[in-house]
Amino acid sequence: MENIIKVLVTGASGQIGRRLVRKLMSQGSEVYTLSTENYFENEPSVKFIKKNRGEPIIEKLPKVDLIFHLASQTSAYIARESVARDIETNLIDSVHFIEKLPNQSQPPAVIYAGSMTAYGMGRVESIDEKVEIDPQTFYDVSKLATQLYLEQYVREGLIKSCVTLRLANIYGDNEKTQSKDRGFVDRSIWNAIEGKELSMYGDGNYLRDYLHIDDAVEAFNCAGKITNEDKIKVFNVGTGKGTVLRSALEQIVEGANALTGKKSRLVSVEFPTAAYNIEKRNSVADASLFRNLTGWSPKIDFSKGIKDGIAKTYALIDQKSN
């Protein structure tokens, strides 16, 4: 992180946030975390700022050079259950946060975590940043609204620049912490190791771009080095390689059964009546713009990521049972 001294990470207890904080620490940055829980209480060098979900920030915020804004409610279905609460959590909380920043002669830059689902159903083979956004859920609307507000804060001079990274499907977090409709690949690994059936909606012939969490963390790290390039920028971040959902689940079942000797299997079920149509999307990210500017590229092949994830999850389950 060139010339970055003080960094603040919101959502630091989340799957990407935890790893990003460790990377920033290893690079010598002075790190502040803003989160609902202190995941780094045993790291005295990390300064924790308490944030209660859906409530304004009470504590005084520090002067920092760079902000990674990862905090978000990430379930489209939870968003639909209470649209107002989702707006409070994603949009209003972000506004409160930015307006609590102290006055600085040089305002901080912001790296914002977006999603490839902003493009909707994915009607082209490979999605670049020129494809029109087409949000299909209240969740995506609130995420996009937050992005627009952050960009307006740049124009108003409260933050220096805003770089939005629209992430492909993230996997590789082996802890069983995700909500029921997020972290699908990681939950499937966990269930397969336990010998459970894996449910696949429809025929499973939906193309996804699966990005390992370590590659996603490195993308955020690289984004921190380009905050002076443009005041407002949006990048897609993914592998550029599509994997059919059915194939992904078959790899998980085969690998888990080979390791455990159990007989997990893949079963096809009907889509629930309340399921969003976007579950049937095809989405592969064209990340060439980001790669060309930063030199970032994904390092972990999906098959290897699945194999490693199965081994790590198996070891974690074995450790907890002993």
Written description of the protein model:
- The chain has helices at 15-26, 76-81, 83-99, 138-156, 184-193, 213-223, 245-260, 288-294, 302-321; strands at residues 6-10, 30-35, 47-50, 66-69, 109-115, 162-167, 169-171, 198-201, 207-208, 210-212, 232-237, 243-244, 266-269.
- With 322 residues, it is of the alpha/beta class.
- Strand 5 (109-115), helix 4 and strand 6 form a beta-alpha-beta unit.
Primary descriptors:
9 helices, alpha/beta, seven-stranded parallel beta sheet, 2 domains, Rossmann fold, UDP-galactose 4-epimerase, domain 1, two-stranded parallel sheet
Report a brief summary of the structure:
This protein is α/β, with parallel strands linked by helices and 322 residues long.
